[in-house]
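User: Could you walk me through two proteins back to back? I'd like the raw sequence and the structure tokens for each, with a short line separating them so I can tell where one ends and the next begins.

Assistant: Of course. Protein one, sequence then structure:
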Amino acid sequence: MDQCAEQVVLVDDAGQPVGTADKIGVHGADTPRHLAFSCYGFDADGRLLVTQRALDKRTFPGFWTNTCCGHPAPGEELAEAVRRRLDHELALVPTDLHLVLPDFSYTAEYAGIVENELCPVFVCRLAGEPRPRADEVAAHQWWPWDRFLDEAADPGSAISPWARLQAPLLRDLVPTSARV
């Protein structure tokens, strides 16, 4: 989907939809709060698929992060948006998809671009090897969960700010949920 034509759902402080806007127009120095999601995908051995954001992405280029992030389209269920983005970015189909942090929210800034998102967090199981799109993912690796937690806790690592904030909240939730 053309990023210029992609719509995001604007939300109020209570997380209720209040409108829509072009994705490209909302990510700037004064970003309105909008709906997004994060997904953490694990293989059968409990390893997390970590991705490096494409170097030409407008927001947080080159940062290492969780498996997949995105924005639901207006009227799209969050779980369907997760499935759509996993397929689009990595050519993967999730199983055992679970919402684990429904109310996660954050604000972060890098290079003059602000993220201001209500960002529910999902975990899932993934089978097979990803086939990433170069315009979305610069690199990918399968990490043991403890390595991800250590990297997220290291202030000098290149982990995305949302993954850094999500990691301690997921510390005890993910291994149980990922192995359902």
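----
Protein two, same layout:
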Amino acid sequence: MVILFAVVMWSVSSMNPWAVIQIPGKDWMVGALWIIGFALIIVAAVEFISAKTTANPLTPGLATSIVTIGVYRLSRNPMYVGFLLILAAWGVFLANVLSILLLPLFVVYLNQFQIIPEENALLVKFGDDYARYLKSVRRWI
């Protein structure tokens, strides 16, 4: 999905050159967003691996535990936050306001078609423990 959104952002940027904007410190901003996003994904994945549970978002039923340590104390979906930051870096690189405005659509899509189904599956599997986690940690940040 991330690659598809990146391609759509590039397409929108290519078709709408009038929407290009100047972004002061663009190179630094792109680098910082990309590094932070990539680091979040790696750290979150390592925590899943350490907990010996699946990181595959397509098979939440295979989860063996609820990961609540590290970055998972701050966000229930740090990998998705990382993907969003990488897409934000891409949007800043493209410097096209229309491409950047697509980022909320990525969040809406993930919430509706990925995160909510994952949460429902984990609620069925882990019950009250997961319900408490849902109440104590934000979905994104």
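The first helix runs from residue 2 to 15.

Let me know if you want the two compared in more detail.
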